[in-house]
Amino acid sequence: MIYLVLFWEFFKVGLFAVGGGLATLPFLSSLGARTGWFTQGMLADMVAVSESTPGPIGVNMATYVGFTTAGVPGAVVATIGLITPSVIIILIIAGFLEKFRQNKYVDQAFYGIRPASTALITAALIGLMAISLFGTSTAGLLHITSISIKPLILFAVLMAVTNIKKVRDLHPIVFIAASAVIGIIFRFAE
Amino acid sequence: MELVELFLCFAKIGSLMFGGGLAMLPLLQRELVGRKKWVTEEEILDYYAIGQCTPGIIAVNTATFVGRKRKGVLGGIFATLGVVFPSLVIITIIAAFLANFADLVFVKNAFAAIRVCVCALILNSVIKLGKKTIKDVPAAVIFVLVLAATLLTDLSPVLFVLASALCGIVIKNVRARG
Prior knowledge:
heterodimer, A: mainly alpha, 2 domains, 8 helices, about 75% helix, flat, B: mainly alpha, 7 helices
């Protein structure tokens, strides 16, 4: 009955982790400690793989833990468990939203929420940039240890190129693939 | 048929989404706002704000929202299964055959650069969103305050979303009277 246990454990992670993929980490850490399914070292490897592959990081983590614990069916069950609570909650909220979208106050509330939402995304981006451009281990610019010039040059070039008229309309994956090649040639991880 | 289209569209987004939930933003703008016109930029911002206040993965929440809007409950489920499907396949293969994937030198080098690229793509997306949402002084004030509060305090984003919703209602009503 490992599948039921897996489903239930990831259902709880999905229910209590508020605010995106890496929010699942503390829950997974205690899950490993409690069940003995994986060690903290294995969890660190799983985070590394989840961050180096496409897809939502939380989903990647669930798939990895599920597979490690109970093979392919385990991967499927853990992932379904993780997403079930948020699917149910969002379907309910979407229903309400549709019903009250014409309501004057709901409309006014969203007038305030949209700039706030843009600010939350901007703040998350600043954290991401601190890690990706300045190599800080935490999302704080105060912890810069050594600045490498390579990411900064690539960033400047990409910002220029992605705002040229015709180039701008290329699919994002083109820029991602080109960056991957550049990263390998110029050894960005060093 | 549209259920299949929802599944495939979100599977495409899931498989091209490098660097976590935020990396979904440029893809959503291109595929869903630009090409298919399924949602507007404003709706994406609404979904993101709600996703910050509710449990679960942001990418999953957004997929459920868009699918629900297009094709009801079934649409929400198909879109969500689509966005997680590539992860299931890719991670299972890596876990089974390439356990040392993240330690490979070329993977490390590629990803250090991909992360930089994702930052540039998201910055372009954020600028686009900002032009749409920050059109007057009150909106700009809300943006600056929430940004500062998020960066400088450890308070929950739920608080900021609720406070800004209240601000929206107050501002609009004061304006209507004045």
